[in-house]
Predict the structure of Copper chaperone PCu(A)C.
Amino acid sequence: MYNKLTLFFLLVSYFCSSSWLYAETTSPVGDTPLVQIENGWVRAVPPQLTLTAAYMQLKNLTQQKLILVGASTPAFAKAEMHQTVFEDNMARMVPVEKLVISPQEVVMFKPKSLHFMLIDRQQPLQVGDTVTLTLQFEGNKTQIVKLEVKENNEAEDTPHQHSSPDSHDSAK
Ligand SMILES: [Cu+2]
């Protein structure tokens, strides 16, 4: 009896821990990612600001069109897709309800353009923190992406801007 119980507990602990590990390393969509995310980041803002934006380069890895319909994150009450438009030298943001992404197409979410507006911050965020964003696609498909909180100037730099002042002089 004692041995049977011990075996039972061993089995339980074995399966529980293995399923827990499985849950940790597998996203809800399964094994195949729908999109590839590069340079994903969230703009760092002063603590008194509870609103910011998320940017990324998103590639449709599938052979079908994907329709991005929204996003959510535990770090903010709401995440909305916006497009910044310029009219008469004024910038304003227009909500984007759906974004159709063709097979293999790369879409850029970037400052002064398409972005995710993150509204009503739920927790303090500092440079270097990670924000988990769940992308929601039509057909109940989701993908979780990790975005790093960064200062804006850092992320908008082109590789050339990292060169030393000397190289500017020699490049005239
Ligand atoms: Cu916006």
